Amino acid sequence: MLEKIQKEWLSNVQKDLLSGFVVGLSVIPETAGFAIMVGLDVGVAFYTTFYMAFVLSLFGARKAMISAAAGSVALILVGVVKNYGLEYAGVATLMAGVLQILLGYLKIGNLLKFIPQSVMYGFVNALGILLLMEQFKFLQNQNLGVFVLLFIGILIIYLFPLITKKIPSNLICILIVSAIALIFDMHAPNLGSIEQGVSGFHFIIIPKNLDFKIMIGLLPYALSLALVGTIESLLTAKTLDVILKDGVSDKNKETKAQGLGNIISGLLGGMTGCALVGQSIINAKSGAKTRLSTFFAGFSLMVLILVFNEYVVKIPIVAVVAVMVMISFTTFNFQSIINIKKIKLYDTLNMLLVVAVVLYTHNLAIGVVVGVLVNALWIKSNGIA
């Protein structure tokens, strides 16, 4: 037992703490953006990130992976909030967690190999487009100053890495844009103007009118949350298996752990979460190897938020939008377009089909299912082994 704790928690302490702290800093603007997109106050995303980090550090199969409030599942929660109200985001998250545990027992991780590359390209490209589209609503009816701040923020994000890559450029964007807005009194809406700003801890509030009919109505959303969150998490785990070269992680165990994380998040007033591929790769490439880095990322974020809450609420929303624009572009796989002549025609068409279905339905899970089915039918009809 002690040997296992030493290996999985204490064998790489210095690098795990440092990389975990950097990741904890870097997820602040990103997760805040996801909460804003759904219509929740940013505290919900911060607590979600801590819950996911805590649970996954203990029960996850893929060490050093970062799970938090995420864009792919936030897009589905937008539909929940639009059709049922803010109070149902937690209920949908709780239901999704239960479904993920069920999927884990059904060994969905074994099916990951059946998702073709064309479908995955379609998944990430549609996700990038939807994330970008969701930012437009924050720029409606804004003054010129807000657009100037957005332009400055995007420039910082893309140019600062030319100076150094040791400090996340999205953090520098947040700091500089916030400073400019305050110094020049640019009247840009800030995080404090959203609902309660940065909310405190609270248990789930069950809506008074929740009944069986509404639960059935929420089921498709919950299933989409479970499928999309699981797919993104398992693909992230697969990526880290390659980077860390410490063995193939148990994808079914990881699915169950993600589900448990979402149950805890739902019960404690959070939103749906899953693995963040970008932060997970940053964590691994920064030298993280154990569960300690996962836990410390969430712990660092909560300490920073609780200690500096009065400053966090002054961050202009446009600074977070700039970060989200960057995320949408980095999510989109431009190589799938640049190398289109090198890709088989039916793979390109299937990728475009997935994108079209997702953009039409605003549901990533439906796009993936359609893409997998079409690919299977193509293979069968053409006798491809």
Give structural notes.
The model has no long low-confidence stretch (mean pLDDT 88). The longest helix is centred in the middle third of the chain and has 33 residues, at 212-244. The protein is 70% helix and 2% strand. It is globular, with a radius of gyration of 20 Å. With 385 residues, it is mainly alpha-helical. Helix 2 runs antiparallel to helix 11 (277-285) and helix 8 packs antiparallel against helix 14. It is built from 17 helices and 2 strands. The protein has a two-stranded antiparallel ribbon.
Could you give a short description of this structure?
The chain has 385 residues and is mainly α. It has helices spanning 2-9, 13-38, 42-59, 71-84, 89-105, 117-135, 144-159, 169-183, 212-244, 251-267, 277-285, 291-307, 309-312, 317-331, 335-338, 345-361, 364-382, and strands at 67-69, 273-275. The chain has a two-stranded antiparallel sheet.
Summarize the topology:
Layout: H1 2-9, H2 13-38, H3 42-59, E1 67-69, H4 71-84, H5 89-105, H6 117-135, H7 144-159, H8 169-183, H9 212-244, H10 251-267, E2 273-275, H11 277-285, H12 291-307, H13 309-312, H14 317-331, H15 335-338, H16 345-361, H17 364-382
Antiparallel strand pairs: 1-2
Look at the structure and give the mean pLDDT. Answer: 88
**What is the global morphology?**
globular
Order the strands across the largest sheet as they lie in space. 1-2
Question: Beta-strand percentage?
Answer: under 5%
Number of extended strands: 2
Judged by helices, strands and strand pairing, the structural class is mainly alpha
Number of helical elements:
17
So what's the oligomer here? Answer: single chain
Question: What is the C-alpha radius of gyration, as a whole number of Å?
Answer: 20 Å
| Amino- and carboxy-terminal Cα gap | 46 Å
Listing every helix as H and every strand as E from the N terminus to the C terminus, the arrangement reads: HHHEHHHHHHHEHHHHHHH
